[in-house]
Specification:
Chain A is about 55% helix and about 10% strand. In chain A, the strands form 3 sheets. In chain A, strands 1, 2, 3, 4, 5, 6, 7, 8 and 9 form a 9-stranded mixed sheet that branches. Chain A has a domain of about 260 residues: 3-Layer(aba) Sandwich (Glycerol-3-phosphate (1)-acyltransferase). The longest helix of chain A has about 40 residues. Chain A has about 700 residues and is α/β, with parallel strands linked by helices. Among the domains of chain B are: about 50 residues, Double Stranded RNA Binding Domain (2-Layer Sandwich); about 110 residues, Uridine Diphospho-n-acetylenolpyruvylglucosamine Reductase, domain 2, CATH 3.30.43.10; about 120 residues, Uridine Diphospho-n-acetylenolpyruvylglucosamine Reductase, domain 3; about 100 residues, GMP Synthetase, Chain A, domain 3 (2-Layer Sandwich). Chain B has a 7-stranded antiparallel sheet, with helices on both faces. In chain B, strands 8-9-13-11-12 form a 5-stranded antiparallel sheet. The chains are: A alpha/beta (about 700), B alpha+beta (about 625). Chain B: Keywords: Acetylation, FAD, Flavoprotein, Lipid biosynthesis, Lipid metabolism, Membrane, Peroxisome, Phosphoprotein, Transferase, Transit peptide. Chain B: It holds the Pfam family FAD_binding_4.
């Protein structure tokens, strides 16, 4: 009962997913002003203690927890209580939101205007809204949207206002506050600001956690935050941050609330506003500091077409059900609950697992547009060296094939059913004019249009296009990831024995656990269960082969990226390489190799990939951080070398078609052909 | 009720009258059929002439006055009369013979029950359905020679095979009997018990002590796996007050005496023990000791562990007792604490020396209405902090307040109903209390008149700080009456597809609100998940205050129409509720005990070492498991 909640929406083949409704339609037909001024009377939590934003602050200041920490800080530092209390007040002042309906109405009005200009439609699953409405009344609610754009949280509040639901309070990064006027506006629309890092600051942590808990426990408003911590620049889900999740689960562990509902929300943009901004950032052009003037300059985006947005409000997940049989709440019986305590091992691993499952739920419910499939195909095509691109009708044929395949794997694909595929393809392509070029009936990525002087500049400008494109492909990555890992595992394994493949599979899984969302735990069992399916009848089909090629190509850029980072560390890492210098140094190294034609994938220039691979190596102990030397990296060359070798058993540069043994392909073919037809099996893969 | 305030007769007299009315005014003449067997009565004890003048409630044949498949006296029960009005039969209680007009609507609305859908109990005990006794002939032979009365009659045995857990009563109503004792013995005094225990040890017979039979922990259930002959040792005939020591204010009492007799007899000489558990009409002194009982007036008199001065218990190893009656001793771990709470696993408590107090000069009920439960708990906490709790203070939640309201008997005058209406108007309209959130605390003050009034003022002043409004003596008194009739009400519910029970816990102050909310919510949720078709009644009250926490009592009942195995569902929900209690920092039990019902949680409750300690005591005292009810461990 407990674990199923997260996955209940998993399989669109088994259960039809909810229908969407375009909320902009009504906005185009009726007055925005009336809409902004309409009567707003949301349903509230049944245990609500009505309180204003101001009383909230005093509740926090008077809490036992804060008292305890204040006195602890005083004892440790010898500061006066008043002094510390003052600090607490100012922290709280800096943090607290000042939710006002008038500001929300202002946003409702302006955003209506903006959204209508930018987007064709904003589609929301109404059943999700109904479920949310129910959940809000029953228990404190935590909204967990995916984070791909600045737009996300304004959009969330806008939607909740539209549907007459309680407006959330939103944990936002302090960087927003830098934007003078806007920061305050956001504050009044429900944002509260937290510092990006406050690792050791006991006092800050106490104020922050107490503030969030107070709002949650009293049902003041749904609490909203981003599990991923920050916007994903790659459109891949980021590995979840646990701090806030820990805080919102704590009242349940301690019995202060009966339950907490976690609602994963998946927001997918057909075209992301920050598209090329992200790509530049990944290539090392630093992110511009948020400023009001910057926002105004960004006005030119208003003139473009950004397609549609799909927002899917997932099934509320009960923390109580999740924790059943996993967390022994009695552990809080013997110490007063207001004394802060480091979470125990079982709580930590529970929160971690839950976080992964919630991010997986976000992924599962993410609506994919046809363009996402096209991006995947175009990227693969580009890499395979077809300089002239791909013929439009061939692309259409491939897209249709991929559409069917992705659906078999449970993708939540929004493909217009009653439109001819060719139209679907061309309309998708036209929306992304900046990324693709169509000439003489052939389609290819819009590379090489720049007026770059040096080859390096040209490479970087191409990389911007490729990374933008990859970010769309990445939206579909979660659909293919698990089978792709198995495909690569069969490929890299030295033989086709089950144990070998399993070892190889575990290795990849372990290696990439900073890169992708792979739920911790039980994969051994799951591997075994679907391996059995695989190794039954052997049947070779053309289709299985094609699938296999596609899947391995999906993972190849990542394999090569990790390899090249390993090579860099072995060849070029000096004694004095610090963590800070790592990215620029590895980038330089990669550019060199790319220009020399020694690397296939321009994508590996992505600093996200580089960071993840370093994190993986640190985790595996192949690289160590030496403390006290500004984070100098100490490379275990032997280990890194052997990791590179293991990754490179199938050299990524080698021809795609050159696949392993005949039998490998055939077993897999069976598996991949069956994939869509056996729901149980698919569930198994998805959970890997 | 109204007579409370109308002074006239002396306080003392009035209180005596009142007490007799409330608790013990419903006595019958003892029914003692065969006095011939009394020839074997113990002669050892010298009893004071005035206390040996017998007027005892519980006869050997309980069936003569009590129900075999429900709570209490045969003549007292709730029923819906032909007009569909609820009434309470008999003459024993204040409520007896009265019409309760509000009950039907409350019953139907709360449970979705209907008077059309009845589930009547099997009317008669069918002796042939009872397993024939497994007798240990040698034991029986030797027992005969002692002259101690015993019986192998099926009815006698069935009566002693159960307590009052829901599943026990439910099975009886369906005419189903599990393992029952093979015979019943009625020792008359301590020495009889010594003889019985010796014989049982000699012949390897399993003994299960039986006092008042009010257990709600499956403690009296015969372990089905027991293959030896099971003998129920009924202490009910050991019911004398052996002496009263007015200098030290103690009384030495045989352990089989039931609460109402003990109070009544002591009252006659101007004393009381002040120990009044809700079951005091039927529960026995020995049972209180064996389960660590708690009385509603513990704030003045203390719980059972505070009240006993000396205990005599017969074990297979011999008799255990202390050598003196010093009020406190530093002689290693207190051996009384091996006895108290041993739940019949170590031996039989035969005689107890208990503290007694002069009867209070003045008694006054009261009640306070709070706008919500949170405020009410805060008030109780403050009262506990100031250590000024009255003899009893209980806080009922909103559902229970409504329940209590539904039990208001028909008022005789228009004036009273007019006053009621006015009161309601004042509280809900004028003071703005939400009738669906307000809750009520009931109070009982005791002592000399001046101090009671002073005390009352202090408590009401505190209550006012938490938004409480005094709501009259009447409401308070009815609250206490509820505890005596609640068990009868369960039988009424069971006539109409409604089953339920109560359970309790103790919890630190800071967790009281959380535990109440979470356990109630858990019950509702579990019922829903297990297919209960109607929303359950899930309600609680805070019944005792301590320095460091409180005792919380939950009532839980639901309409089981549409369920194939209601008892199983009930048990699952209760199990889940107990898990929830433990997860919220509550104890396994405040005063009901562990029995067999809550055994599974004992280890985590007292730790491995604690379990080992208890086990080693059992192993020494009763190596052959003569006291084989298998409670606790």
């Amino acid at each position: 009962m407990a674990s199923k909640a997260v996955y209940s929406q998993r399989d669109p083949m088994l259960k039809k997913r909810d229908d969407f409704e375009d909320i902009l339609e009504e906005r185009r037909n009726s007055s925005d002003l009336r809409y902004a001024l309409r009567c707003y009377a949301p349903v509230v939590y049944k245990g609500l203690c009505p309180s204003k934003a101001g009383t909230l602050k005093s509740m926090v200041l008077q809490s036992d927890q804060l008292h305890y920490v204040i006195h602890q800080v005083c004892r440790e530092t010898g500061r006066a209580v008043d002094d510390v209390q003052e600090e607490v007040s100012s922290i709280l002042e800096e943090m607290a939101h000042r939710l006002q309906l008038s500001t929300v109405r202002f946003f409702a009005f302006t955003l209506s205007k903006v959204f209508k200009t930018l987007f064709r439609s904003i589609c929301v699953n109404e059943e999700g809204i109904q479920r949310l409405q129910q959940a809000i009344q029953e228990h404190p609610v935590v909204l967990l949207p995916s984070h791909r754009s600045y737009m996300d949280f304004l959009l969330m509040s806008y939607l909740l206002y539209t549907y007459d639901l309680a407006l959330p309070v939103i944990a936002a990064g302090m960087d927003f506050m830098g934007m003078k006027f806007v920061g305050e506006m956001l504050r009044m629309s429900g944002a509260f600001f937290i510092r990006r890092s406050f690792g050791g600051d006991k006092l800050y942590w106490a104020v922050f956690s107490e503030y969030v808990k107070t709002m949650l426990k009293n049902g003041f408003a749904p609490v909203e935050f981003f599990l991923e911590g920050t916007r994903s620049r790659t459109s891949k889900s980021l590995t979840p941050k646990l701090g806030l999740l820990n805080i919102v689960m704590d009242p349940f562990f301690k019995g202060e609330v009966f339950d907490v509902s976690l609602v994963p929300v998946s927001i997918s943009y057909e075209r992301i506003l920050e598209e090329s901004l992200y790509a530049r950032e990944l290539l090392g052009v630093p992110k511009p500091k948020e400023s009001t003037s910057g926002l105004i300059k960004a006005r030119k985006v208003l003139s473009e077409d950004y397609g549609s947005i799909h927002v899917y409000f997932g099934q509320p997940v009960s923390v109580r059900s999740l924790a059943e049989g996993r967390v022994n709440r009695c552990q809080f019986n013997l110490i007063p609950r207001h004394i802060p305590k480091k979470p125990s091992e079982d709580i930590h691993s529970f929160v971690n697992d839950s976080a992964y499952r919630l991010v997986r739920a976000q992924e599962e419910n993410m609506v994919l547009k046809p363009w996402v499939l096209l991006a995947s195909l175009l990227l693969q095509n580009q890499v395979s060296g077809q300089k002239r691109g791909i013929a439009l009708d061939e692309l259409t044929e491939q897209a249709v094939w991929l559409r069917d395949l992705s659906r078999q794997y449970g993708a939540f694909l929004h493909w217009p059913e009653h439109t001819p595929p060719s139209e679907v393809v061309s309309s998708s392509l036209s929306l992304h004019r900046g990324l693709v070029r169509i000439s003489e009936g052939r389609v290819q990525l819009a590379l090489g249009q720049s007026y770059a002087v040096t080859p390096e500049e040209e490479l970087l400008s191409q990389a911007v296009i490729i990374l933008s494109c990859a970010s769309y492909r990445n939206q579909a990555l979660h659909v293919f990831l698990r089978p792709a890992l198995l495909a690569s595992a069969i490929h890299t394994a030295s033989s086709n024995k089950k144990q070998e493949v399993f070892n190889s599979f575990s290795f990849l899984r372990n290696m990439f656990s900073n890169e992708f969302i792979l739920c911790p735990g039980t994969y051994c069992m799951l591997f075994t269960s679907h391996w059995c399916c695989v190794s039954q009848d052997v049947l070779v089909t053309e289709r299985g082969h094609r699938t296999l090629v596609f899947l391995t190509s999906m993972l190849d850029p990542f394999l090569q990226g990790y390899q090249v980072v390993c090579r860099f560390l072995c060849e070029e890492a000096t004694e004095a390489l610090t963590e800070k210098q790592f990215i620029p140094a590895v980038r330089k190294f990669i550019i060199k190799h790319l220009l020399a034609g020694r690397l296939r994938y321009t994508e590996v220039l992505s600093s996200d990939l580089q960071k993840n691979s370093l994190a993986a190596l640190l985790r595996l102990g192949a690289v160590r951080k030496i403390k006290g030397y500004q984070g100098t990296l100490k490379v275990n060359t032997v280990m890194v070398n052997s990791l590179e070798d293991t990754l490179g058993k199938k050299p990524a540069v080698r021809n795609q078609q050159c696949l392993g043994s005949f039998q490998n392909i055939s077993t897999l073919s069976v598996f991949f052909c069956l994939g869509g037809k056996l729901p149980t099996q698919k569930a198994v893969i998805a959970r890997l | 009720m109204a007579s409370n305030s109308s002074g006239g007769s002396s306080d003392r007299q009035r209180i005596a009258q009142q007490r007799l009315r409330i608790i013990a005014g419903h006595l019958q003449r003892p029914v003692d059929g065969d006095s011939a067997i009394l020839a074997a009565e113990c002669k050892a004890q010298g009893s004071k002439p005035d206390t040996s003048r017998e007027e005892k409630t519980v006869p050997r044949r309980r069936q003569e006055i009590m129900k075999w498949n429900g709570w209490g006296y045969s003549d007292s029960r709730f029923l819906f009369n032909k007009k569909g009005q609820a009434e309470f039969t008999g003459k024993r209680y204040r409520l007896s013979g009265m019409i309760i007009p509000g009950l039907k609507d409350w019953f139907e609305c709360t449970f979705g029950a209907s008077l059309q859908h009845k589930t009547p109990a099997t009317p008669l005990l069918n002796s042939s359905a009872v397993q024939p006794p497994t007798l240990n002939e040698a034991f029986v032979e030797e027992l005969k020679s002692t002259g101690i009365p015993f019986s192998q009659d099926a009815e006698d045995r069935v009566f002693r095979a159960h307590g009052h857990c829901l599943h026990e009563i439910f099975a009886l109503r369906e005419g189903k009997f599990g393992r029952v004792p093979d015979m019943v013995v009625w020792p008359n005094c301590h020495n009889d018990v010594v003889k019985i225990v010796e014989l049982a040890s000699k012949h390897n017979v399993c003994l299960i002590p039986y006092g008042g039979g009010t257990s709600v922990s499956s403690a009296l259930e015969c372990p089905p796996e027991e293959t030896r002959s099971i003998v129920s040792l009924d202490t009910s005939q050991m019911n004398r007050i052996l002496w009263v020591d007015e200098k030290n204010l103690t009384a030495h009492v045989e352990a089989g005496i039931v609460g109402q007799d003990l109070e009544r007899l002591l009252n006659e000489s101007g004393y009381c023990t002040g120990h009044e558990p809700d079951s005091m009409e039927f529960s026995s002194l020995g049972g209180w000791v064996a389960t660590r009982a708690s009385g509603m007036k513990k704030n003045i008199y203390g719980n059972i562990e505070d009240l006993v001065v000396h205990i005599k218990m017969v074990t297979p190893q011999g008799v255990i007792e202390k050598s003196c009656q010093g009020p406190r001793m530093s002689t290693g771990p207190d051996i009384h604490h091996f006895i108290m709470g041993s739940e019949g696993t170590l031996g039989v408590v035969t005689e107890v020396t208990m503290k007694i107090r002069p009867m209070p000069e003045y008694q006054k009920y009261g009640s306070v209405v709070f706008p919500n439960f949170e405020q009410g708990v805060a008030c109780l906490r403050e009262v506990a902090r100031q250590r000024c709790a009255p003899a009893s203070i209980r806080l009922m939640d909103n559902e229970q307040f409504k329940f209590g309201h539904a039990l208001k008997p028909q008022v005789s005058s228009i004036f009273t109903s007019f006053l009621d209406g006015l009161k309601k108007f004042y509280i809900t309209k004028f003071k703005g209390f939400d009738p669906n959130r307000l809750c009520v605390a009931t109070l009982l003050f005791e002592g000399d008149r001046e101090k009671v009034l002073q005390h009352e003022k202090q408590v009401y002043d505190i209550a006012a700080k938490f938004g409480g409004l005094a709501a009259g003596e009447d409401n308070g008194q009815r609250g206490y009456m509820l505890t005596f009739v609640i068990a009868y009400l369960r039988d009424l519910g069971m006539d109409y597809y409604v089953i339920g029970e109560s359970f309790e816990t103790s919890v630190p102050w800071d967790r009281v609100l959380d535990i109440c909310r979470n356990v109630k919510a858990r019950i509702v949720r579990e019922c829903k998940e297990r297919g209960v078709q109607f929303p359950p009644l899930s309600t609680c009250r805070v019944t005792q205050t301590y320095d460091a926490g409180a005792c919380v009592y939950f009532y839980f009942a639901f309409n089981y129409r549409g369920l194939s195995d209601p008892v199983h569902v009930y048990e699952q929900v209760e199990h889940a509720a107990r898990e929830e209690i433990l997860a919220n920092g509550g104890s396994l039990s405040h005063h009901h005990g562990v029995g067999k019902l809550r055994k599974e949680w004992m280890r985590e409750t007292v730790s491995n070492v604690g379990m080992g300690m208890l086990k080693s005591v059992k192993d020494y005292v009763d190596p052959n498991n003569i006291f084989g009810n298998r409670n606790l461990l």
